[in-house]
């Protein structure tokens, strides 16, 4: 029996296909449409899932949609009515979309797919709960789902046993931990529903100066983790903005303009809301453990992507084991609803392999064969070298040792926001320059953003304060103290600052020599920005034995790699370890700022040529940038650059 699950019309639309309970395929629509966080009906994702299984829509018996549109519409309508006449402009914008599209899921499925079978509509947080529990390695577990809002629910918890999930308690809109975090995301100048991870990355640069201000005015937190928000400070229930004027007055500053110079004040705001979020989640987990008596915890919902909070839950919480859905946001709801239909609606039995989830490493997207890749490379007249399987990992490890940045593209694409070694950019974790090179020359993104370590599972405790598996890059832990290097102070710090100024001055001269005066002017503005210069100085210091993956607070977002999940990726790290004694490489997603992770060989090649990557590995083919034809299209990174 085939079942398709769908999420759409809010953000991160996706589709998933299961066969007799086995996960066959899952992908986000953005990877095919190339619209980041695409919310449209996931027609392309559905077509991929059917193609992967070799079936048509006529072979599908059930379709599950990840929430109840009419219940969500009820919440929106009731909220507008309760705030009337305030919010009339937002109301007039929202209603046409709902009346024309969002209320007509059945008609859309029939029109777009020709599907004539049964459609199941669980509640939003039931889909999240199903995505968290059913693929987990636990026969029974408590679950926690936290996001912005589903229909009415914003936070829920309950239990999963065998083939059923049961919600025990929930909190309702407008009281939402996810929307509190989103409000600060907006306040600090980032985009809501996509910039929250930037806020999390910014937080370690700040101090928790405003924790009491937040708790005294914005959110009332109870001992069991339940909370109520003071809606006088927020505009999101019915307005066109996240915040009201009272919010800015409370903090004494307006929201940060997007792309503006980041200041210490906003860093402190980021740190403060991060600390509050962690406090709420820890309290909920303590209460949930006390109420259920279970030792295992499963998590989903957008807030479950907060890997800093997840790390604290693992270290300080009461649960022995936790498992987090890799596609924890709305995309994972597509997988959750498909599994919900199979297990809970159809009452099929569920088998569990202890210690092994059924997510298949989250490698659930499309793959391209060597034959398809070579055909493409010939068509574009690329210069390439074929490397057989037995030599590939050692060849790539040698390139990394030689300080090259490599686009690694092999196997099935990852499902979820993290690149896990199928669509990754990789480099040497020991390099003090690698973080800066990747951020500014490859990713074209904010300089404060850390990169993740990919480490052999059996060697994780040699470098980090944990021996826990983290295959999906959803846990932050600390680098071992013995690996730390002290940060520069006093005269040494002043000297490093002058070095960075000289580097920027040289860049200005070089840009002016080639008449790129607008870009030179922007770099000159960086020279006038003390916060930016301080950032550069911090980033260019070796904070540990593996500086490229060590954040300013000596933490790292960990990916542990086993050969069973991804043989070639694991073997690269193993060969690198054999040659250097270091079992860690840098791993970041194969994309540039503002674009989804690459899906096809063509997208990988274009990203490779538009950036300063040195090599590209497509399947068994290695491409050297120096040997390629001159590329006409250039990514205007200065236009996209932010002084953060």
- Radius of gyration from CA coordinates: 24 Å
- The averaged pLDDT comes out at 90
Could you state the CATH homologous superfamily of the domain at 370-485 and 542-640? Carbamoyltransferase, C-terminal domain
Distance between the termini: 51 Å
Strand order of the largest sheet: 13-21-20-14-15-19-16-18-17
Number-wise, the strands total: 21
CATH domain fold name of the domain at 370-485 and 542-640: DHBP synthase
Given the C-alpha coordinates, what overall shape results? globular
Largest sheet: 9 strands, mixed
**Uncertain regions spanning at least 5 consecutive residues:** 636-644
User: Helices and strands: which structural class?
Assistant: alpha/beta
CATH architecture of the domain at 370-485 and 542-640: Alpha-Beta Complex
- CATH domain class of the domain at 370-485 and 542-640: Alpha Beta
Helical residues, percent: 25-40%
Q: Helix count, per DSSP?
A: 22
Q: Beta fraction of the residues?
A: 15-25%
